Amino acid sequence: MARPTPTPEIRKAYVLGGNRIPFARAGGPYVRASNQDMLTAAIDGLVARYGLQGERIGEVAAGAVLKHSKDFNLTREAVLGSALSAETPAYDVQQACATGLETVVSLSNKIRLGQLESAIAGGVDSTSDAPIAVSNRLRRALLDLSRAKTVGQKLAAVATIRPKDLAPVAPNTGEPRTHLSMGEHQALTTAQWEITQAAQDEIALASHQRLAAAYDSGFFDDLVTPFRGLTRDANLRADSSLEKLAKLKPAFGLGLDTPATMTAGNSTPLSDGASAVLLGSAEWAAAHDLVPLASVVDAEAGAVDFVHGDDGLLMAPAFAVPRLLARNGLTLDDLDYVEIHEAFAATVLTTLAAWESEEFGRTRLGLDGAFGTVDRAKLNVHGSSLAAGHPFAATGGRIVATISKELHRRKTESGSDKPVRALVSVCAAGGLGLTAILEAA
Amino acid sequence: MTSTVVLPEVPGLGGLFARGAGLSLARRVRSGPTVLPDVEYVVRGVRASSEHLTDYQHLLGESASDVLPAGFVHVLAFPVATALMVRSDFPLPLVGLVHVANRVTQQRPVLLTDDLDVRATATDLRPHRSGTQVDLVTEVSVDGSVAWRGVSTYLARGIFLAGSVDESSETFAPPTPTGRWTLDGDTGRRYAAVSGDRNPIHLTALSAKALGFPRAIAHGMYTASRALADVGARRGDAFEWAVEFVKPVLLPGTVTVRVARADDGFTFAGWDARSGKPHLTGSVTPLR
């Protein structure tokens, strides 16, 4: 295999700020809010915070995982409904739970190439207002009916409809090729790496405690705009404890011959919410009196063949991160922050376990030994999806805005030229993963 | 000397079943022939229709390419073998025959636009511990060379034509699953619609009960073809696809499956997660 060459020196793209609405639990205060409503709210909050009313932004990219076909231009419609200039172009992106991070990566690449001076990346998802479709058989009959010209053809089309075909089809988290839910897939990986419930509960507790601390300290004051009466993420349980978490009954992995360890407490709940991230060149930032927080250095996507059981569904980042760091001449020790999206607490732990495994390092990563160990003090320092909730496409924007602010805070505090870096890692359906390096500006 | 019966087109399975049902009763009550007829059945110039192919591919989870899935070629060609099985001199009754194994050798891709010549023979009538087995061999040729060859093994339970043997069945330990098939009550009817195999044991609980099953059962070839679809594109252009049907899948039902890389290809298994008992096991091995 040819050795990857470092990215050539080009100008930098910076994260200038972020905004999101608090994440709600499915069926909660955002129950009637659509994806377009929430994305517009997140963008408008960003516009208000950074004085972008009437501004023509270079491009806005966002997406939703659960998207209705009528929302074919979701992001453009949100822009048209926002306070941005109507001359702001927009496009939709969809890469399952990596959607939000992918918008950051692709827009920052355009900025680095000089195609854009400014951009807004974002994502939104609603499991409360999820699109419901008709069955394939009913859809086919209705399409045949619309094409039918004679009464006979129309009757023939209608006659193919069975009562069963009338049942609506709601989206689910099942993988299309395996028909196992994401939780069932993770349970297989959790069992493979022998992750205990206690270890998962510790991750969950830390997530709640750190997110609560960040809210209490005012860290999110310029990152979150209240919406529909919600001022903090509805899933946050500041008073959670290991005792309470241990009492929860297992929700996934019940049919396996190993103990089931994954509970509702150490798995993310279905959520509603939206996020947006403001990106720009140094020149654009200066012209708008904005302070760059962090630059988007590089990114690497990965994918695994979970269909044939080679690797766990959510393990792609375990492969992408070693490639990403190698290309940039970095090791885990060179990172000051590691943000691993908590799809499940076990996802974080199986990823860390794979990196710590000599055998995985040798046989699966092609290294001389284990990839390395992540210092837990650097991991998800302001909490992550277990506490905040996980409106699929909105998670990338939440992580990037949060860690960019933290990177800038640390760099400013240190007063030194030493680089301050963060790794962002997001797993996604379809065996996908997207990872990125951010560096304090 | 093998005699050849050339049919003008692939016969419909419905008519063959009706004919087979009548003969089967006679075969069960009085002794019939104990050797296979030395005959081959031939149909030339068979073509697939794109609508039929698309319906099949969508039902089984195959990509809708113009290459005919190996299981779809079986659907096109096997009725020719069935015509042989309902001859009055075929020694086993059609009704009650159990499809116990299937082995397909795909030498090269068969395309939607190919003209297919189908040739079917019956071979290897042999004893089994619970009855008598026979292989139906179907060959599909394009431009004079065999592109696809299927060997379908059937068992006639309780009919001992040539003594009996004792075979020990292998024990099955459920492996780590890679997926699951959730099969609705109409799975048999939907596969019947694309395969033409409207054997009553697959259609409704009532019709299946009449033939001794507690509920309708899935077509074996439906489950085997789903496993082949799960293997996906990496089966390549030429491969051997082998399956043994161990225990019928009652409908509606859930089959836990593993489809995974093995030394020289893929192996697959489908089982009942609750009992740990297998429904089918098999392999897909690329030909080199």
TrEMBL record, chain A:
Keywords: Acyltransferase, Transferase. It holds the Pfam family Thiolase_N. Residues 294-439 form the Thiolase C-terminal domain. InterPro entries: 3-ketoacyl-CoA_Thiolase (IPR050521), Thiolase (IPR002155), Thiolase-like (IPR016039), Thiolase_C (IPR020617), Thiolase_N (IPR020616). The active site is at residues 97, 390, 427. One of its GO terms (cellular component) is cytosol. One of its GO terms (molecular function) is acyltransferase activity, transferring groups other than amino-acyl groups. Transmembrane segments: none annotated. Residues 14-282 form the Thiolase N-terminal domain. Belongs to the thiolase-like superfamily. Thiolase family. This is Acetyl-CoA acetyltransferase. It comes from Cellulomonas terrae. The lineage of its organism: Bacteria, Bacillati, Actinomycetota, Actinomycetes, Micrococcales.
TrEMBL record, chain B:
One of its GO terms (cellular component) is fatty acid synthase complex. One of its GO terms (biological process) is fatty acid biosynthetic process. Residues 182-263 form the MaoC-like domain. One of its GO terms (molecular function) is fatty acid synthase activity. Pfam families: MaoC_dehydratas (PF01575). Belongs to the enoyl-CoA hydratase/isomerase family. This is Acyl dehydratase. It comes from Cellulomonas terrae.
